[in-house]
Amino acid sequence: MGLTETLADYFDLDSHDTTVRTELLAGLTTFLTMSYIVVVNPAVLANAITIEGIGDGRMRAMIAVVTLLSAATATLVMALYANRPFAQAPGLGLNAFFAFTVVLGMGVPWQTALAAVVVEGVIFIALTAVGAREYVIRLFPEPVKLAVGSGIGLFLALIGFESMRVVAGDPATFLTLSPVFAKDPVALISVAGLLFTFGLYARGVRGSIVIGILGTTAAGYVAAALGYTAYNPENVTGASIATDIFLTGSTTTYSLAAYDIRPLVGAFLSGFANVDAFTFALIVFTFFFVDFFDTAGTLVGVGQSAGFLDEEGNLPDIDKPLMADAIGTTVGGMLGTSTVTTYIESASGVEEGGRTGLTALTVAALFLLSLAFVPIAAGIPEYASHIALVVIGVVMLGNAVEIAWDDLTYAIPAGMTIMVMPFTFSIAYGIAAGIVSYPIVKLAAGERKEIHAGQWLLAGAFVVYFAVRTSGVM
Fold it and tell me: Residue ranges of the alpha helices (H) in 130-238?
């Protein structure tokens, strides 16, 4: 039996109506779309993690290696254990909370913050093993489950347009068209790449997203070579930040010390010393809450796009991808990075046809391959990879047709889920809006019997969470 037949048999490709070629292409697509994390995660965490005698450049390199290892480990578990096409890596937002709120804002040692990540991961493993996480997700109201996909679509599109520098912040309107759009090479190249990708996609070209990403990348490098590097040139050259991470003042010589991550691995153990129990519990609670609902939302939303959900809107065998997420978080904290979570960018691979763990295995292999030369993983500029998010965002809006919009007890929580998600830049907050509004509108409509007691408890838990997060306690 050849390698192709072995892979097809192990991942049961025939029953998922897919092929090895399709799965490999889907994995490549997902990897290209989320490869930015190799640069962004070290840039964020290096603000908080400092070790005497280790400079900023080497520290970023060490965190880049840890990022790749944790992402590869978690995604490998997803592939081999869960057989799902979801990719994982240290999560954006949670890494910023780790660095700027917990360590720099609250003055908590970074080792203690890592200890909180490990504790959260262990709790997740325990809850997943007994089925508690799956039970909570099944309590999500049906309109919320059906709306998550479209909310994620809008969220992805907003992230994409921001990275492409099509939109920008504005003090009056909060968000507007970039005021320098017409003279910003990044914006112009991004939009041209987006339209090119849309054209390929509309013609049904297999691999259209990968072609669009690579074509936009090539155009960006040509523009950089011609000197069109106005407005933040590192985004045009793409790999320059990553190159600086691993090079030590020379443009050709590697620093092998970057691969010596011993100062980070196991550092969480010292974080348990002299811990303030109340503060530590709040940190674990926040990591736990956001990671739980971000992961749940991603699995349900992307699962909906892949056609994985059953007639009740549940993802069958969701305990397996949840366990992969829990193991990833635990291993990541032990290695020295913030919470690992399932990436919404997995939707790009799903849209390219990825349906099994072979897609995730491809992503994991590419993360490991990137260890040999980290700038390879970051060689795709963020603006190029994120045109895929806009394409997928448009596609995922179609999930909203499954919602019973003529029933206000469905329309209100579904609409709140969809709208709040991009406006707050958080999957978890969108889910919260839907979960809190659902029992209220059901009660008001005289349909109290349709409200599960657990749904009231979920709504109450979100109220408590927001009280903690926005009252100045943290």
Answer: 132-138, 142-163, 185-202, 208-225, 234-237
